[in-house]
């Protein structure tokens, strides 16, 4: 028996982290690991993964609607125009994580996203690092925290001027947007992205 999977009252098998908190369970059941292929959605995920660095995902998830309101629903064109006045407002917004470096990184990354339009664009760049295979973890301990592809993606984004996009953060992004499937074998969500079996 896998102690990392819990069968809920609905009869569905989920990892421990998604089994007790209703907000995390809903996120796990509906969103996590599903493909994101639009620029605004991808910019939001990159931004939230950066804010999550060093914190629990549940903190970010509980503040997500506040983040969306504060960052113009993560429209990179609008965020790229944020200046000192908007930055000061964000630093005083108790509804988000008030970390100056992460706030400035989000504004910087919006500008980098705009510049990428002259090349392939953010979506094509990120998805070009999709690996040819995905992990098949049976336990949480078997889930990697980074990969050769997340390292390469991190380097590529940094070269394009992005920040707070380290290889561990980028692997978390790849998991969140379905580029890799790290749902545990036996979870009801395994293979739900339509990308991996």
UniProtKB/TrEMBL annotation:
The keyword Transport does not apply. It comes from Corynebacterium callunae DSM 20147. Keywords: Metal-binding, Zinc. SUPFAM superfamilies: DNA-glycosylase. InterPro entries: Adenine_glyco (IPR005019), DNA-3mA_glycosylase (IPR052891), DNA_glycosylase (IPR011257). GO terms for biological process: base-excision repair. This is DNA-3-methyladenine glycosylase I. Zn(2+) binds at residue 183. GO terms for molecular function: DNA-3-methyladenine glycosylase activity; metal ion binding.
